[in-house]
Design brief:
The chain is of the alpha/beta class. Helix content is 37%, strand content 20%. The chain has a 7-stranded antiparallel beta sheet. Strands 7-6-11-10-9-8 form a 6-stranded parallel beta sheet. Strands 16-14-15-19 form a 4-stranded mixed beta sheet. This is Nicotinate phosphoribosyltransferase.
Length: 443
């Protein structure tokens, strides 16, 4: 394996996580029990909700979060940490606990999306990795969810791999499915996560043949008459006519990748019907975003391929999530809530509970309850409220139900249900405030 693929999640981090660990090991605070919390102070401008994605990838990374001899030598050679810290890191495995919002869950400003509990030393090492996964994956899932709403019941497919970093492409494919997409063009994502893979041919395939008819014949010979033929290399009307002549009325589909997609789809649909290909599907691709999808709602389109705007979060490529210490063990062994007081960056002290309340089966408020472990243990929420937190890791043991293909399917289904429980304005593409308020109570 080359260095490109054989990497260490334990080094996918900022240097200061290790320098802090080193200093804390020397002064004796590295072993203090701590609670860290991941949240965002605000949604991207005008967005009504966000969708959590990436937690399963964090659990996958956590399984491999330990340092090889090569990693330790690197930290030592660079003098990032002292020899004593290298020794401490030799057998490092995260032994703390993690709970948080499930994948596919809606989140809002100040939602405690993830809470990491353990010693300061082990929790601080996870910060960068957790944030880089959650910020990107949740941005993609949030954009995907808006696109799926705009597409109504027509399936959306991820075709964004060529518009982002090659590793991000794999993460984006997974996050897109959590966000409501039905499949991806990315084969590595399909292999790793068991996703539906899609794809047939590009314009170069048509251009390498002497004419369009030969290209269509070749594709049908290889992939069968149920394949999807790309019809906008030259003249769309001619291409559709040729496609039906070559494949017969059983032709699976045609793809349009340019032009005024709505009017072209309408003309192509009418032409296909006139040629007897009434079951042939129409798919469109070409710089689509949620607004373009909404504009195509009345057009006779059967599915969409979305690229650039999906993998860039449709203008919001990060969720601005942060990882903050909210509670720590004091010198006398008792747990003390802590908070930043910085201007515009203040935090709410204490560990959190999170609930959602409903009226007439529609969500009306996010309730964040903050306090000490004892105070939270004694707290009784309204019996009608929904508990939003699940346990991902218990004292170093990962719950496998939140990893792998089945977890992605569960998150995909959960997102649709959770979105349906929000007021309908959540699905508006107009700019607005978060669709439900968040109320924080400090016990």
């Amino acid at each position: 394996m080359g260095a490109f693929t054989d990497y260490s999640p334990a080094l996918m981090t900022d240097m200061y996580e290790y320098t802090m660990l080193d200093a804390c090991l020397k002064d004796g605070t590295a072993g203090r029990k701590c609670v860290f919390e991941v949240f965002t102070r605000h949604l991207p401008e005008g967005r009504r909700y966000g969708v959590v994605a990436g937690t399963g990838r964090i659990l996958d990374a956590l399984e491999h979060f330990h340092l090889s001899e090569e990693d330790l030598k690197f930290l030592s050679d660079r003098k990032v940490v002292s020899p004593e810290t290298v020794k401490w890191l030799e057998n490092f495995r995260f032994s703390g606990s993690i709970k948080g919002y499930r994948e596919g869950e809606m989140f809002f400003p100040n939602s405690p999306i993830l809470q990491v509990e353990g010693t300061f030393g082990e929790c601080t090492l996870l910060e960068t990795l957790i944030l880089s996964i959650l910020n990107y994956d949740s941005a993609v899932a949030s954009a995907a969810s808006r696109m799926v709403s705009a597409a109504k019941d027509r399936p959306c497919m991820d075709m964004g791999g060529r518009r982002t970093n090659e590793w991000a492409a794999v993460a984006a494919a997974r996050a897109a499915v959590v966000g409501g997409f039905k499949g991806t063009a990315n084969l590595l994502a399909a292999q790793i996560y068991g996703l539906k893979a899609i794809g047939t041919a590009a314009h170069c395939f048509t251009l390498v043949h002497d004419d369009e008819r030969q290209a269509f014949r070749s594709q049908i010979a290889a992939l069968g008459e149920n394949t999807t033929l790309l019809v906008d290399t030259y003249n769309i009307e001619e291409a559709v006519k040729t496609a039906v002549e070559v494949a017969g009325p059983q032709l699976g589909g045609v793809r349009i990748d340019s032009g005024d997609l709505a009017s072209l789809a309408q003309r192509v649909r009418n032409q296909l019907d006139a040629l007897g290909a009434t079951n042939t599907k129409i798919t469109v691709t070409n710089d689509l975003d949620e607004y373009a999808l909404a504009a195509l709602q009345t057009a006779p389109v059967d599915s969409y391929g979305v690229g650039t705007m999906l993998v860039t979060g449709s203008g919001a490529p990060t969720c601005a999530m942060v990882y903050k210490l909210t509670e720590r063990e004091g010198a006398d062994g008792t747990m003390v809530p802590v908070a930043k007081k910085s201007k515009n960056k203040a935090t709410v002290p204490g560990r959190k509970l999170a609930f959602r309340s409903y009226e007439y089966n529609l969500a009306d408020c996010e309730h964040i309850i903050s306090g000490s472990e004892e105070a939270l243990a004694a707290y009784t929420p309204d019996p009608e409220w929904k508990d939003l937190l699940v346990d991902y890791v218990d004292h170093g043991t990962i719950d496998p139900q939140y990893q792998g293909h089945d977890a992605i399917v569960a998150a995909h289904e959960y997102r649709a249900k959770a979105l349906a429980e929000l007021p309908i304005t959540a699905q508006s593409l107009m700019k607005g405030e978060p669709v439900i308020p968040t109320e924080t109570t400090v016990l």
